[in-house]
Amino acid sequence: MFDTADAVLLARIQFAFTVSFHFLFPAFTIGLASFLAVLNGLWLWTKDSKYLDLFRYWVKIFALAFAMGVVSGIVMSYQFGTNWSVFSDRAGPVIGAPMAYEVLSAFFLEAGFLGIMLFGRDRVGPALHMVACVAVALGTAFSAFWILSVNSWMHTPAGFEIDAETGQFLPTDFWQVIFNPSFPYRLMHTVTAAYLTTAFIVGGVAALHLLRHRHRRDRVSPATRTMFSMAMWMATIFAPVQIFLGDLHGLNTLEHQPAKVMAMEGHFESHPDGAPLYLFGLPNQDEQRLDYAVGIPKLSSLILKHDLNAPLAGLDTIPREDQPPVAVVFWSFRIMVALGFAMLGIGAWSLWARVRGRLDDSPMLHRAALVMAPSGLIAVLAGWITTEVGRQPFTVYGFLRTADSAAPLDAAAVGSSLVAFIIVYFAVFGAGTYYILRLMNRAPSSAEPRLKDVTDSPIRTAGITPAPQQAARHRNAHPGE
Known about the structure:
mainly alpha; 15 helices
């Protein structure tokens, strides 16, 4: 069935599928790890049981999401060697070290303290348990740092030279490789997106249970009220910050990857006297025009150049073979922006309700928050589609084309593994996601049960039997004694 397919296209689809599936989990756990650290700190500071209840409620969900994120990410590393071996050979001397540092400094930090965070509260004491919570949160941030550094270098490569004989990218300045021109903007934009993703998931879960309590007319637990309040504070504060960071990132992209911005804006033609901001339209790349365009005159020049009459170049200045797929970039960018402004609206709405003292008694706001629960996940996927498809037709922008990066594999081999990944991913991670949703479907309760570890599991079948369990077993076998 893949005899007539393009092997490079199938390899791109395979990587896009696995990385999109994978990134849903880190986009959630990066923010959730910090949320758990804050909850644990508030519990230690105030001794208010609602923070401990929330910690125990969300740590179960974090454990599952973290595990699925780790497992789903392993597949991508193998694809560098199977589907993208030429890219790995050429770019390996540059990107190999940061990716290794991600494992050593970030993943080891997360994995080393995760067990203490999950099971160690009653074993290591409150201080060390707090340290573990902070370490896991920092580990997720360090992981984002190194991965985004590598990704940013592929967009704005710096600090390297190309070996004339092998064609390999050789690092000449490690700091320029890490802190390449787009890295600070991409890091801030992505991490903030992760915090917003967590905020809207937490807020949506809280809104669900507030609506249920309202329908049943029973008492809402303090933990549920606090959960919704904290989530809405995050939306109120970080949504406008994210829009500001997105603007800065866009200006940086215009400087270093103008073709991507042209595709995002739908500018097939250059505009010497101010470019319009197209709200909608149907990109026609074959004819190099935007059909049925609806736009606001000169607004794009104002946003990108801060001048209504500033000239903006269009895709007519870019050779056809160097243009990204405009339709995908155009629409994914609009999905991301629309969701960003919807988040801003929810944050402003919740602030108005808070000022009026109606935050817990505003069913329309709760319904809106529930609908917006997955908005962060959709927005980060749309954002990654925009930035990654907008980089095409290059893997290392301006230096290494995607068509020259793939391994010499037959389409049948790539297509077969793609089908296998789709089946396994939806079966395994679909089941895990279903269980997470079941956990979210239950409201946090007073005296929320802790996450149980192996000490609460069935008695061991080998080795030394723990004394308390052995004694209980003896009593059950000899009830008269």
